[in-house]
Amino acid sequence: MEAVAVLPALVERVSDAVDPDRELVERFLGGERDAFDALVRRHQKGVWRMVRRYLKSDADTADVTQQVFVRAFKGLGGFRGAASVRSWLYRIAIHASLSWLRDHKREQPTEIDEDAMVEAPIAPKRIADGQDGARLRAAIEQLPPKQKLVLELRVFDDLPFKEVAELADCSENTAKVNFHYAVKRLRDILGGRHGARD
Predict the structure, then answer these.
(1) Which of 72, 111, 109 is nearest to 93 (CA)?
(2) Burial class (CB in 10 A: 0-12, 13-18, 19+), 154
(3) What CA–CA distance (Å, rounded) separates 181 from 167?
(4) What share of the chain is helix, strand, coil (3-state, %, to 5)?
(5) CATH number of this structure's domain 2-190
(6) N or C terminus of the chain with fewer C-beta within 10 Å?
(7) What is the per-residue pLDDT for 16?
(8) What is the DSSP letter of 158?
(9) Distances (CA, A) of 136 to 72, 125, 151, 160, 191
(10) How many C-beta atoms lie closer than 10 Å to residue 78's C-beta?
C-alpha cells in the first residue's frame, strides 16, 4: 500500500529550527503594529488548518481563527518566549477550538470536505493524494485522541517533538511514544488488522 509506504519517512522527519518570529515579537512589543500583521500573515493558514481539524465548518473555523489572533494580539505582551511563537499560537488555537466545541456541543456539525484536510499540506504530497489519502485520513480518525493529536501536529504541522509535547500537555518522550504507537496503529489499520476503535 502506498499510504503505508510513506509512514517510515514521517518517523524520520526532524525540524528543530530557531524561532524565526522572535524579531517580529520584539518589533511589535517595541510599538511596531505592522509586525503583528506579519505574524498573522505568516501563521494564518497553519492556525486555520489546526482549528479546522476540530471544527467541521469553514465559517466556524474562520470565526475561531479570528478569535485566536485577537487573543494573541491581547496576550503578546505576556509572551515569555518559553516556546516558539508558532507553538504559542497553536496552543491558543487548540484551547479556542475546544472551548468552541464545548460551548456548541449540541449543534450537529456538517461533514468535512474531502479537500479540507489536505489544503496546502506540509506533509508529503502522496499522503493527500487520491484513494490512499482518503484511507489514511479515515484511519487517522480511528486513533485515540492523544495519538491523533500528536500525529497531526508532527506530520501535518511539521512541529518538532518538543513543541508537540507542549501542545499535547505531555513530556517530549510521551509525545514520541504516542507518535510511535500512532504510526504502528495506522500500519495495522491500513493493513486491515483493525477495523474499528478498541
Answers:
(1) 72
(2) buried
(3) 18
(4) 70, 0, 30
(5) 1.10.1740.10
(6) C
(7) 38
(8) -
(9) 33, 13, 12, 22, 11
(10) 6
| Long-range CB contacts for residues 101-106, cutoff 8 Å, separation at least 24 | 101/54, 101/55, 104/60
Q: How confident is the model over 56-66, as pLDDT tens digits?
A: 788 999 999 99
Please answer whether residues 51 and 97 qualify as being in contact, where contact means their C-beta atoms are separated by less than 8 angstroms: yes
- Nearest alpha carbon to residue 40 among 16, 76, 15: 76
Q: Parse the chain into domains and list their residue ranges.
A: 2-190
Which ranges of the chain does DSSP label H, i.e. alpha helix?
A: 2-5, 7-11, 22-29, 33-54, 58-75, 85-103, 125-128, 130-141, 145-155, 161-167, 172-190
How far apart are alpha carbons 88 and 107 in whole angstroms?
Answer: 29
88 grid coordinates: 504559542
pLDDT at position 68, please? 93
Q: Which residue matches cell numbers 516558539? A: 84
Phi, psi of 87 (to 5 degrees): -60, -45
Residue 5 CA to residue 59 CA, distance in Å, equals 35
Burial label for 97, CB within 10 Å (0-12, 13-18, 19+), is buried
Predicted local confidence at residue 131, as pLDDT: 63
Beta-carbon contacts of 40 under 8 Å, excluding residues fewer than 6 positions away, are 69
